[in-house]
Design a protein that fits this description.
Helix content is about 30%, strand content about 30%. It contains seven helices and seven strands, in the order H-E-H-E-H-E-E-E-H-E-E-H-H-H. A five-stranded mixed sheet has the order 2-3-4-5-6. Strand 5, helix 4 and strand 6 form a beta-alpha-beta unit. The longest helix is centred in the last third of the chain and has 12 residues. The relative contact order is 0.15.
């Protein structure tokens, strides 16, 4: 397995050739700025930070290109309880098989994610942006004890949830008296 030290010194390239990397069983690592990820930008409170990654390219028993590894980042998002910024840490493994079309994707093992690669080059920025879009929580929030939202008392919450139709009861009683 060869490492590509050039990537560590100059930063990762925008595009890589997965076929060449898989033939050599190359491993690449680096850091990508989140600022270039336009689809992710609208979901963040601050479009700052970076994604650090390590990827290994090789081939499976069917000759398909496989990419495995790990990536880590911390995203600044908006807490859905208090609406203040919250840091969301993401540390995920990557296990992807590159396929030529949707038909070939159906033949990939269920524990491996297929990725349709229409070009000969793979954009690392788009690859990690897709990974992050899938990894971010649907409703990011602080831990309950760290959240800045005013906590209602338990009895107030219980009363509100137990009496949603109390007004209708009063109306029914009033109309039956008439």
């Amino acid at each position: 397995m060869a490492k590509l030290p050039r990537l560590m010194e100059q930063g990762p390239p925008q595009f890589v050739d997965p076929k060449r990397l898989a033939e050599n069983r190359d491993e690449i690592s680096g850091i990508l700025d989140i600022a270039g990820m336009q689809r992710l930008e609208g979901l963040l409170s601050k479009n700052t930070g970076s994604v650090s990654f390590e990827l290994l390219f090789n081939r499976d028993e069917h000759g398909r290109i496989c990419v495995s590894g790990n990536y880590k980042t911390e995203l600044c998002m908006q807490c859905q309880r208090c609406l203040l910024p919250v840091d969301v840490k993401i540390d995920k493994d990557v296990n992807v098989t590159l396929v030529a079309d949707e038909e070939e994707a159906t033949r990939v093992s269920r524990d491996i994610e297929p990725l349709v690669l229409t070009d000969k080059k793979l954009s690392l920025l788009m690859f990690f942006e897709d990974e992050l879009l899938l990894a971010i929580p649907l409703a990011p929030n602080h831990e309950v004890e760290d959240c800045h939202v005013e906590q209602s008392s338990e009895t107030e919450i219980r009363e509100e949830t137990q009496r949603p139709f109390a007004v209708l009861k009063d109306l029914k009683l009033k109309s039956s008296k008439d």
